[in-house]
Amino acid sequence: MKRKIIFRADGGPTIGMGHFIRTLALAEMLKDDYYCIFATRTPSVYQTIEIGKVCHKRIDLPNNETHFKVFIDVLIGDEIVVLDNYYFTSEYQRFIKNKGCKLVCIDDLHDKEFFADLIINHTLGICHRDYHAQPYTQIALGPKYVLLRKVFLEQAKIQKEAKEIRTIFICFGGLDDKNLTENALIAALDFVQIKKVIVITGSAYKTLKSLKAIINSNKKTIHYHAINQELMLALILKSDLAIVPASGILYEVLATKIPVITGAYINNQNLFLRDLVKHKHVVLTEEFSTEKIRQSIKSVICNNEIVANKGLFDGLSGERISNLFSDLNDTVFIITGANRGLGKALSDSLLKRKNTIIVSISRKVTSDQMKQIHKNKFYHICQDLSEEINYISLNKLNDIITKTNRIFFINNASTIKPIEVISKLDDKEIEEALKVNIYSPIILVKFLLSNFSHNKINFVNITSGAANKSIANWSIYSSSKAFINRFFELLKEENKNNKKYNFVSIDPGIIDTDMQFEIRSSEFPLQHVFKEAKVLQKLLNPMEAAENIINKLELK
Fold first, then answer.
1. Residue 278: which domain range?
2. pLDDT, the chain, mean
3. CA-CA distance, 530 to 536, in Å (whole number)?
């Protein structure tokens, strides 16, 4: 089951569409790995269609002050919540955190105390010290975390050569309540060099009648209203110069690498513009009056003013943001035989890390592990691996894994017994050893691959040097270890094109565990080698071996 993300953002005639568009862009980045839900107030037909393309579900909230409480009541506590608007106060953030949810805030004002686990601000020129946040808060700043819709991110990867300016693109977002579109259009039509003007208005634009009167009187103008992102991109790519405000549309245009004339018409856009202007990524118009826009167009056309926006975005912000969200999830480690020896050492070491949950598949748990069960950090699936797998118990994993998309399965449990020449082995002992060492690992791997195909799963096989050596009297143990090594190699080959799965075998070396005691207590030709290793202190401490394994897994 995919973990839920609930995206909370509004858009409409009074607040514009900027928050809505960038939040939906974030949902588009994450929709393949999470169950995405969009919660909003009174969505328009346009918003409903766009949400339906990206998200798995929509929650419609009341269009009054009760929407704050109604949304809190929707939360169960195991979701990731994304907030994007200026009216989500510090206190409201704390309500969500107290529910047990992970919280992400999209913010470009840094005007309050934040209780979020992650803050995303793709504005240039902001630093961590600008935020009053918590010690646990991750802060992702700058264009490398830009929230752009997929088609624009892909375009950002493509180089574009500068062209002579013949077509101007004009768009002032979904609202444009000051009707700046008309000012820009009138200014653009004054230039004989301009052969075409493409005008885009949004779903909340209110003065279409006045605008159309101008458009209908000039054949150079083409008008589009409330269009989708694919058409928006196509029209930008047909243009040689864009006139847009310092809002979300500005970053979309910059991703296409055409020259941009922009400016601020509300106070919070000045901060957005500051470093873009400083580094000459845009041409600034002091105000969006017809005359000021006309002067800016002239400076670009006649004075050949060049903007340096080619390297602003690399198109990889989706991958970076996906990794940030992965860090918000608990990592679940399913360890067979976590109640003793190396398995217990792995469990103890991993429990010291944040956002870590251990699932022990074993017959028993220790008293220390029982304490962790009460903290919801440790789960026990009671299973004797020498017996048939109990699928009823195994199905508990469905609930445990709800809050993660990252799983490690560590095939640790194995038995060295029976140590004897094959002719003297007991049939029952052979059966039990093969179930522990071969049958159970195969069934567990099959169960995970069949039930958690949406998760990223690392399959880790704890192997042994005995898999590659012929040690007399170890026929069952050595051959079964060799079998599972080959099994993991074949799984790696079968899944080489699936980036969600990884298969690795790790030999931890000779460890001072109960298994080593059993080896030293058994009669076989090389028994003396293991006794000497104990005497000469050549055996690894279980915790040391566990840390070596964890380091090889490259856990953050």
1. 151-301
2. 92
3. 10
